[in-house]
Design brief:
The structure holds two protein chains of two kinds.
Chain A (H helix, E strand, L loop, with lengths): L4 H29 L1
Chain B lengths: L1 H22 L5 H35 L13 H23 L7 H12 L1 H9 L5 H5 L4 H18 L8 H6 L2
The chains are: A mainly alpha, B mainly alpha.
Chain lengths: 34, 176
């Protein structure tokens, strides 16, 4: 295993997690307006 | 905002799967290869959809606000491509879940990735059911738990594994 893999995976997972949460908030906001 | 955030999910998700492929035991790489294949399909589909929406459809709709064939609305071309993207993401999480051990640091990542894969048929139903409604869309609410949950669990998995844990002794010998 490359030594960078855990850090790369951690960083990418955290960014994707933040993006999913932002997506969920945006969707909820959109449907609360409708 | 929705398209931008969706775009920001896809590439980091694929990088996380790539890192998982490198981190797991070599016997589990069949599963991570499957996860990578479906991950690439997912990214290809959604980047196509959101890049077109952000660069063409939204700027054009500001000039003349009329529905176009390129818009994302139920039962349109890009709606279906978007759906195929999220189905591919679900398949990718299924393969990724099987690559993780049943015990140890990967157990929660495995469970949550599996739960995200289990919800995928519901996502497929929402996208391809011929009579779309808000009620049908609400069926997909569990995805808002399983998707971030699986990514957070994957982040904790990467944090808990040590690069030394899986190092092959032959790697040490091959070093200059």
């Amino acid at each position: 295993m490359n030594e960078a893999s855990p850090q790369l995976g951690f960083g990418a997972s955290v960014i994707a997690f933040i993006a999913v949460v932002a997506y969920g908030v945006a969707q909820t906001f959109k449907f609360s307006i409708l | 905002m929705i398209y931008g955030t969706s775009l920001c999910i896809s590439v980091p998700f694929l990088i996380a799967i790539l890192a998982l492929h490198d981190a797991v035991d070599s016997r589990q790489r069949l599963w991570t290869c499957g996860a990578l294949l479906f991950g690439v399909m997912y990214v290809t589909y959604v980047v196509l959809v959101y890049a077109v929406q952000l660069s063409v459809v939204i700027p054009k709709s500001m000039e003349s606000p009329s529905g176009t064939v390129l818009g994302v609305a139920p039962q349109t071309l890009f709606w279906d491509i978007d759906g195929l993207g999220y189905i591919s993401m679900g398949a990718s999480t299924l393969f990724a879940a099987f690559s993780l051990p049943r015990k140890g640091p990967g157990i929660w990542a495995r469970r949550l990735l599996l739960s995200n894969a289990i919800i995928t048929p519901v996502i497929a139903f929402i996208y391809f059911y011929p009579h779309f409604s808000l009620g049908v869309l609400l069926l997909g609410l569990p995805w808002l738990i399983t998707a971030p949950g699986s990514l957070l669990a994957l982040a904790f998995y990467f944090r808990n594994i040590s690069p030394v844990t899986f190092r092959n002794p032959t790697d040490e010998r091959s070093r200059p």
